[in-house]
Amino acid sequence: MHVSDYRPIACCNVLYKAITKIIVKRMQRVLPLLIDYSQNAFVPGRSITDNILLAQELLAGYNQKRLPLRCTIKVDIQKAYDSVEWDFLLEVLKLFNFPLQFIVLINQCVSTASFSVSLNGSNHGFFKGGRGLRQGDPMSPYLFVLVMEIWNALLRFRVKNAAEFQPLFDKVDARLAGWNHLNLSYAGRLQLIKAVLSTLHMYWASAFILPKGVLKNLEKKMRKFLWYGSTGSGNAKVAWERICKPKEEGGLGLHSLITTNQALMLKQLWRIIQNDGTSIWVDWIQHYRLRHSTIWTFNEH
């Protein structure tokens, strides 16, 4: 264990959060004008899903032998918020022509924090820092986006097959393992499926057409948990298709994961049809895939 493996815990009182919330409201008005539309995280009116969809399109067929040699680099930032130098942040704010008084307010909010080391439950001393944005501070995500705009670094990744969904399976298995010690009733397990298990895949399902094998595997885990808990086994007492029907039709009101994925993909299709000019992914699809035709006349071949 190294000291760099630890990170400070930020304690922000109500008054501080109220002040930074006011600053954030001011920043949100100009952020879409300052941040390039290729960066979508925390920018009002944009969706980070666009970057996921665009990365998927750019990497389609990337490994074909007939193409020239190439490589892809996936970049991640370790302890992203903690890596922001305060002096650099102030220079970035000046570069974006924020008013001096506004920069002074932000500097006071960011740099006035004191840190203490807790040893065996006792706090020892206070010292000043030189970098880092506090987790839980309403202002931190927006300041980080402004800093990242200097490098304009995009997070790109591709999902091709079921094996690459293992992190999703691991997340579901971890939740199920955490419920082993709970003496849950049938109704309790049903509620956990609705509130937790059926939502874990939503981030993936909103960006990709998930393989049916992946969705069937997830539904299998839910079905087993519903009837027998985390550790039991046996055959389902009612078909899953029946369970996923509305309550008025004799079901339990759960949603089929396949149907949910299809509905979310239709939402992306509607964005392409609507094309209001605010999405980098839609613009790319229109220019390179549809070539300014319509989606109704598009022929992939």
TrEMBL record:
It comes from the Eukaryota. PROSITE patterns: RT_POL (PS50878). Coiled coil: none annotated. InterPro entries: DNA/RNA_pol_sf, RT_dom. CDD domains: RT_nLTR_like. Residues 1-232 form the Reverse transcriptase domain. SUPFAM superfamilies: DNA/RNA polymerases (SSF56672). This is Ribonuclease H protein. It comes from Sesamum radiatum. The lineage of its organism: Eukaryota, Viridiplantae, Streptophyta, Embryophyta, Tracheophyta.
